Amino acid sequence: xxxxxxxxxxxxxxxxxxxxxxxxxxxxxxxxxxxxxxxxxxxxxxxxxxxxxxxxxxxxxxxxxxxxxxxxxxxxxxxxxxxxxxxxxxxxxxxxxxxxxxxxxxxxxxxxxxxxxxxxxxxxxxxxxxxxxxxxxxxxxxxxxxxxxxxxxxxxxxxxxxxxxxxxxxxxxxxxxxxxxxxxxxxxxxxxxxxxxxxxxxxxxxxxxxxxxxxxxxxxxxxxxxxxxxxxxxxxxxxxxxxxxxxxxxxxxxxxxxxxxxxxxxxxxxxxxxxxxxxxxxxxxxxx
Length: 288
What we know:
Blueprint: H1 2-7, H2 13-22, H3 30-39, H4 58-75, E1 81-89, E2 119-126, E3 129-137, H5 142-153, E4 163-166, H6 175-183, E5 187-190, H7 201-214, H8 221-232, H9 237-255, H10 266-272, H11 279-286
Parallel strand pairs: 1-4, 4-5
Antiparallel strand pairs: 1-2, 2-3
């Protein structure tokens, strides 16, 4: 049964019970099966994380060690790195689970009838904290991104020769972006595909989205942007250092050719693969 659930983690209790019966097991109730899975097998019902076929494909896993090595050779440490990413929000952002008495719906009231256009938050973040943030209605493109760099980021890092780490969004690869970065004395570094664990900007959004989802938002964007701005102001340099350390742990795992993602905690993954020894030495090398 444990093997079946491990290979079919989205299986329902009825499907697991049918499998148990077909394998010669006893016919038990769904309630009894749920308790058995929790108490004896230590399997808990969790939010399902969707992983598409390319995320941990052989090609993706094989590309990761080479990228980590190149990152270490060309950058040396995280001190120079500034990470970029964007995330969308709207007035219908909400939690997907809640509590209610038996026989009643779990409801979150007061939500606007119209979600309005998406707001896309873009952040630039590094070891010292947030360097620049901006929100646009609709979406980002090469023109607005270059304006963000020239007006929001580059004046604060003039003469520092930073490495700008970003994903493979199409407009990141345009000539306009490349030219703007090079003229400012910086360089681009693109993350390998399907590797959000290497981008600490994702941690910013994971801190903001749960708060946005539980707020009673008004029928306009001001309430939403105010909540986002309020949460951005709580992000500290200590947060960023912790996120970078977690990223460094995942880089060790990727460098050794292991798939990423089964554990939500990199320390647990390091221990499972026997890679915890030498962690402090690695930190010393990647944090100047």
